[in-house]
Amino acid sequence: MKKYLINYLKVKNKMVTLIVENVYTKIVGDIDNEVITEIIKEMSYEISNYNPYNGVETQTFSLFKYLNRIYPTGLYSFVTDILKKHNINFKIVDKRDLSLHYKPFETNKLYLRDYQQNVLNQALKAKRGVIQIATGGGKTELAAKLIADIGLKAIFLVHTYDLLHQAADRFEKYYDFKVGRISGSECFVSDKVNVCMIQTLHYCLKKKYILFDDEEQKYNENSNVKSNVVKNILDTSDVLIVDEGHKIAAQSYINIMESTNCVYRYCMSATPQRSDGRTIHLQAYTGMKFTPITASYLITQNYLVRPIIYLCNIYKQKFIYSKSNYTSTYKKYIVENEYRNKVIAVLVKKLISQNKHVLITVTQKKHGKILLKLLKTVTKSDKIKFLYSDVSKEDRINILEDMRNGKLNVLIGTSLADEGLDIPILDVLILAGAGKSITRIPQRIGRVLRLYENKKNVYVFDFVDNVRYLRGQLRERIEIYKQEKEFIINNLDYTKNANN
């Protein structure tokens, strides 16, 4: 008993200091190795990769940097909870400039829905965190009001030209001033709000930009923006909001987060989860997740349209074992699959006759070109366009505007169509490119759920690819669909004329 009491007092009398800064927090003081080990474990995540020789290999990483004893400030509570658990006394030295006072400015006819106001209140109170609102739920309006209510100099970080202009145009609709636009081809700086492309900021930091994943489109990194302009924006801004915030785990985004001392830090995403195990990074570099607003909630509140998802079976065989690797299998059974592509073309022809407006998503440019040629042949229509990275900025803007205005019936898109595509007239989605991403799939479906005149139901067509590698992806997509209780899932049989 006496020995236990001595050890207890020894632990209890320890004093640890947490030095809190905007990006990282440092632990100063003596802590037992077992407590440090627990902190390391609490901040760990696993990444699995396929090795052709050894199968799936899993590696464990931690966001706690042992040698320096620092960790991302967004995980501050992880450490304080463990210290309290072990009866370790600690004091906090907060070096952040929390004396900043809100300087709210007026907005023009910007009215939030109840759920948006609730999330806004949470964000203002916490000063940093993860905002999850399903596609079509009004993230940009919420961001505009959040920036206005804080009223301090703000950066809104995007990753495509389309998102940059879409966000800036929307902000200027509500603000009485011009919003800054920073990209490789333009540099107008505002002393209040700047919408910036991450590629441009990253280029000016003299660091190589790393793509988010294999589907992200590559932009020209050359920039006409001077490095001192970017440095000034990063140094003098107090608010940072990352659009499509699930990308924060990418090293390029972390570099930006580490290069600014913004006190107010938020990321916004319809899907703040990652399939690669790095979801913890979102909280680490911003903060806690606020009340999530799901697609199903928005459907029940009549803010989105309910989707009917059709799983289209095109194979007579229950399973096809491909001896090839994934790349070759995908090419044979997705990209160059004549029967599958023809099913899509015939389906699109029928949908056009019903005056539907169709979004077809692909993961490879080659597949999009094959479908474009086939669709024009089968449908005899010239109201079909393919949006991909080689299309000029001016042509992209025109294509999107024509689709919004109903001048086009069909838009084929690569990952450019995954994020920020705001075309309410869309009422059909065809997932021609398969895939399993827990971020991209919900976003693709979200593109067609927005309200529009006389739009009562929307339709999503997915494919039952009973092929090695591809069937596993299908299972994961179905699990994603099942997470939304308002999504309706049906089956369609296209095997009658199949030759497989």
Describe the structure.
- By secondary structure, this protein is α/β, with parallel strands linked by helices.
- The protein folds into three domains: 93 residues, Translation Initiation Factor Eif1 (2-Layer Sandwich); 180 residues, P-loop containing nucleotide triphosphate hydrolases (Rossmann fold, 3-Layer(aba) Sandwich); 190 residues, P-loop containing nucleotide triphosphate hydrolases (Rossmann fold, 3-Layer(aba) Sandwich), CATH 3.40.50.300.
- It has 17 helices and 20 strands.
- The chain has a seven-stranded mixed beta sheet with strand order 7-13-12-8-11-9-10.
- The longest helix is centred in the last third of the chain and has 16 residues.
- The protein is globular, with a radius of gyration of 25 Å.
- The N terminus is likely disordered.
Structural class estimated from helices and strands: alpha/beta
- Text of the CATH class of the largest domain: Alpha Beta
| CATH A-level architecture of the largest domain | 3-Layer(aba) Sandwich
Instruction: Predict the CATH topology of the largest domain.
Output: Rossmann fold
Number of strands: 20
- Which regions have little confidence, pLDDT < 50, spanning 5+ residues? 1-11
* Proportion in helices: 25-40%
Major β-sheet profile: 7 strands, mixed
Which strands sit side by side, in order, in the main sheet?
7-13-12-8-11-9-10
Spatial gap, N to C terminus: 76 Å
CATH homologous superfamily of the largest domain - what is it?
P-loop containing nucleotide triphosphate hydrolases
- Return the average pLDDT rounded to an integer: 89
Count of individual helical segments:
17
Total discrete domains: 3
- Note the overall shape: globular
Radius of gyration: 25 Å
| Beta-strand content bin | 15-25%
